[in-house]
Amino acid sequence: MLLDSIEKYASVYDCDLEHSQNVRSLAIQLFDVSPKLHGLGETERRLLGTAALLHDIGWEYGQSRHHKNSARMILENPPNWLTERELLIVANIARYHRKALPAISHVDYARLPSADRETVDKLAALLRIADGLDVTHDARVSIENFAFSKQSARLRLSCAGEPSPNIDSAMKKADLFERVFQRRLLIEPGRVRRGCSP
Q1: 101 is a domain residue
Q2: Residues whose CB falls within 8 Å of the CB of residue 9, separated by 6 or more in sequence, listed in order
């Protein structure tokens, strides 16, 4: 199974695999509830899930620049289930999960044709938010609803604990989302899931 192969690849490196699995779940939830916003399909969904599971493998070399190290490691040790084109897309999505936004001055991003750069922009925007939503590394939030207007995108969470750190982190990483989708992101806590402390 492909998911098992990706997780096995990620587990070789010094990263928090459980966090990466949580981020993948959140990123896929965001993707699945916003098809009219991003306009992408099953192939892109798979690439987002792959990038989410691999986004932190760069921690093998420490926290500093781990986003760049993740991209480099993906390109230097290519997973055998990705085509050359998919490999470059996944590496770029992982690279932009934090810090600088995509820019044509970045060599590996510039290597992509414009349509693939647009795909990277959209998927990295979702990954940044998903990563922020699990900043506590404990899967305390999930997506309850994602509603859109011409001016805003309102994300409502289901919470298993105090969501403030996760909301704050996701909002700090909403810059790419707001640039790509031309909507202000609003995040609000929703119901507390059963069996969990508020």
Answers
A1: yes
A2: 54, 79
Residue 130: which domain range? Answer: 2-138
Q: Domain for residue 145, yes or no?
A: no
CATH number at residue 13: 1.10.3210.10
Overall pTM surpassing 0.90 (yes/no): yes
153 falls within a domain: no
Query: Which pLDDT tens digit goes with each residue over 88-133?
Result: 999 999 999 999 999 999 999 999 999 999 999 999 999 999 999 9
What's the DSSP call for residue 59? G
78 falls within a domain: yes
Task: Return the number of other C-beta atoms located less than 10 Å from residue 117's C-beta.
Answer: 17
The DSSP letter of residue 97 is T
Tens of pLDDT, residue by residue over 123-162, are 999 999 999 999 999 999 999 999 999 999 999 999 988 8
Q: In 124-150, which positions are buried (b, 16+ CB within 10 angstroms) versus exposed (e)?
A: bbbbbbbbbbbbbeebbbbbbebeeee
Above 50 in pLDDT, residue 40?
A: yes
**Cβ burial, residue 154 (10 Å; 0-12/13-18/19+):** middle
